[in-house]
UniProtKB/TrEMBL annotation:
Annotated organism of origin: Lophotis ruficrista
Location of the Phospholipid/glycerol acyltransferase domain: 70-156
MF-aspect GO terms: 1-acylglycerophosphocholine O-acyltransferase activity; lysophosphatidic acid acyltransferase activity
Family the entry assigns: Belongs to the 1-acyl-sn-glycerol-3-phosphate acyltransferase family.
UniProt entry tagged with the keyword tRNA-binding: no
Alphabetical UniProt keywords: Acyltransferase, Lipid metabolism, Membrane, Transferase, Transmembrane, Transmembrane helix
Entry protein name: PCAT2 acyltransferase
Length: 160
């Protein structure tokens, strides 16, 4: 009976996950369409709300479809309380759960990830801090950008 459940559930979960990812891509595309300042200016108004609420909800739904149920104990720090938070050790996809629960913050990501089909668009909508492995000044530039965003008094999303 368990094998039969797996035969039915696996394709069903895969289809649901694919639909959720495509919806996330659609909303990320809408939020970043003709975005002024493309990455150098924070998203504002409906664009920022769309990314924070819709993508957060879709990410939580995707994890639920995959069989994860996450409960938050305690209070999540607000953007003004904690403009930077650390999710470590970055060794699995579980970091995405933290991002979904905290309202889709900006992340630090390598520049190569932005060119990935579908996921690159979703990633760009989160207004990530880009790290280039070829640039010798990348580490310094990353620290400068994180500091700028942390001191922006809520104009930029939290940075993780």
């Amino acid at each position: 009976q368990t094998v039969l459940q797996g035969i039915v559930l696996l394709p069903l979960r895969a289809i649901c996950f694919a639909v959720i990812v495509l919806l996330a891509w659609l909303f990320a595309s809408i939020a970043t369409f003709r975005q002024p300042g493309k990455g150098s200016v924070p998203l504002k108004g409906w664009r920022r709300r769309m990314v924070q609420t819709t993508l957060s909800c879709l990410t939580r739904t995707a994890f639920f479809v995959m069989g994860f149920q996450v409960k938050v104990k305690g209070k999540i720090a607000s953007l003004l309380e904690a403009p930077i938070f650390v999710a470590a050790p970055h060794s699995s996809f579980f970091d995405a759960i933290i991002c979904a629960l905290t309202g889709m913050p900006s992340i630090v990501s390598r520049a190569e990830n932005f060119s990935t089909p579908v996921f690159g668009t979703i990633l760009n909508s989160l207004q990530p801090v880009s790290v280039s492995r070829q640039d010798p000044d990348s580490r310094k530039n990353t620290v400068t950008e994180i500091t700028k965003r942390a001191l922006s008094r809520g104009q930029w999303p939290q940075v993780t």
